[in-house]
Design goal:
CATH architecture of the largest domain: Up-down Bundle
CATH topology of the largest domain: Formate dehydrogenase/DMSO reductase fold
Number of domains: 2
Strand order of the largest sheet: 1-2
Length: 468
């Protein structure tokens, strides 16, 4: 049984998930690294008796709470909302596999929220050691949350030899777990320093205090850049063969990979020549440039990480079109749908055919042969239904992300049908066709209807000679 589709015009549902997720990642990593910054620097300010620094740290704490706890919580809920609608089958599999991990993460998230509010709202009312201890409780809980979430997202890219029914720990300690934990820990350190630099450059006029913050945050930022690089290289080394092939196959992804390492190197050099070797460079313009470079590195990295999973949402477990490649958790998979029919295999699609095309039924089941006996307009309408369920998760229709119209422009029905029959053979980053030959004909009818004509100036297609 496949889930109903969720149509998001132009953007497509997966890209909507990506937009919300990237924004959340940029904030959640600051929640980890920024918590460590506040814990370390508050302790340092108490020990040195630097009241001006403590006053700044309290102001930074307010900014930190508003951005990470308030906005971060909103985007976190937004992720759950979008994946539940756009990728319900993948969400179901992740919950079943990692229910223990989610439970642990929610406990630490509760500790985070509690510690963050106590740390800020009881500022000046707690003993110094207690105040710093609360800061460290927050920082450790936030990092553990990062580790737990990383284990789950890393599983989606490479579950290794995990199979349904295996233990939680076998799924969690997957081949991508350590590389991504290293990269995300480094990213938390790097991003937090860039957030601090930007905030300090805009809010501090005292040169001594600004130079102090610049020097104190330089080494964590440099360490973070080094960890991002090391984690990224090991991430590539532990990619499945198909994911590496997708990365090489897509020219845009190759450009993005080059940009990631070039921008990381640029951030490293600017941090070394500026805050580390020459304190006093921390102008708003310099801080903004560093911040934008860091944001670009993270955003591009997240896009590449998601893109190389094709044709899967969860590698080797859930295909990109919300269909299972094999028998997982007792749900019907591609081989079964190819025999019984995609329309027959889903509750919503089956009921749709029963209500709108009762002539295609043989008793309570859809007769695949009768589908082709329907009027041409009805075949196109059913082809659109098949497209929305089978292809909508990755393709817009006429315009937008990976719109199918421009992709098939000028193709004949025979060319379209040949691709449908061998989707994963023609493009290894696409899932296999999960329907019958009759349903392949229906979706071919629909795609041929929406395919724009060949552009003027192109050589005409050779005439097809019919067999005598």
């Amino acid at each position: 049984m496949h889930y109903p589709w969720w149509y998001v015009p132009y953007v497509t549902a997966p890209m909507l998930i990506a937009v919300i997720s990237v924004v959340h990642v940029l904030v959640s990593h600051y929640a980890v690294g920024g918590g460590l910054f506040l814990a370390v620097e508050t302790g340092k300010a108490y020990r040195s008796g630097d009241r001006e620094y403590l006053a700044y740290l309290k102001r930074h704490g307010r900014f930190f709470i508003l951005l990470t706890v308030v906005f971060g919580a909103i985007t976190g809920v937004g992720i759950w909302w979008t994946i539940g609608l756009a990728s319900p089958l993948a969400t179901e599999v992740l919950i079943r596999t990692f229910v223990f991990g989610w439970a642990i993460e929610w406990v630490f998230f509760f500790v985070e929220i509690t510690a963050a509010f106590v740390f800020y709202y009881y500022w000046g009312r707690l003993a110094e050691k207690t105040h710093v201890a609360i800061g460290w409780i927050y920082a450790m809980a936030a990092w553990i949350s990062l580790v737990l979430i990383t284990g789950i997202t890393a599983f989606m890219l490479n579950p290794g030899d995990w199979r349904p029914g295996d233990s939680f720990w076998k799924a969690f300690l997957n081949p991508q777990f350590i590389p991504q934990t290293i990269a995300r820990t480094g990213g938390a350190l790097l991003l937090s320093s860039l957030y601090v630099y930007l905030h300090a450059s805009l809010t501090i006029r005292d040169g001594r205090l600004r130079d102090l913050i610049e020097q104190r945050s330089a080494r964590p930022a440099l360490l973070g850049a080094a960890l991002v690089t090391a984690g990224g290289l090991s991430w590539y080394g532990f990619l499945p063969e198909l994911a590496q092939a997708v990365l090489v196959r897509a020219a845009a992804l190759n450009v993005f990979m080059g940009l990631i390492f070039a921008l990381t190197a640029a951030v490293f050099v600017l941090l070394y020549l500026g805050p580390y070797r020459n304190p006093g460079w921390l102008s708003p313009g310099f801080a903004l440039a560093l911040f934008l470079f860091g944001i670009a590195v993270f955003s591009i990295g997240e896009f590449v990480r998601e893109a190389v999973r094709k044709p899967y949402i969860i590698y080797n477990v859930v295909l990109g079109n919300q269909v299972l490649p094999g028998d997982v958790f007792g749900s019907e998979a591609v081989p079964g749908l190819q025999k019984t029919g995609y329309l027959e295999g889903g509750i919503w699609t089956r009921e749709y055919v029963k209500q709108h095309y009762p002539g295609a039924l043989d008793g309570d089941r859809i007769d695949e042969k009768r589908l082709l006996a329907l009027p041409h307009s009805d075949r196109i309408a059913l082809g659109e239904v098949l497209f929305q369920y089978h292809c909508n998760d990755c393709h817009a229709i006429h315009q937008g992300y990976s719109a199918v119209g421009p992709l098939i422009r000028g193709r004949s029905p025979a060319m379209i049908r040949a691709v449908i029959d061998d989707l994963h053979g023609a493009h290894f980053f696409m899932p296999p066709w999960a329907g019958t030959p009759e349903e392949a004909e229906l979706i071919t009818n629909y795609l041929a209807e929406i395919a724009p004509p060949r552009p003027e100036g192109m050589f005409p297609l050779p005439a097809v000679q019919e067999a005598p």
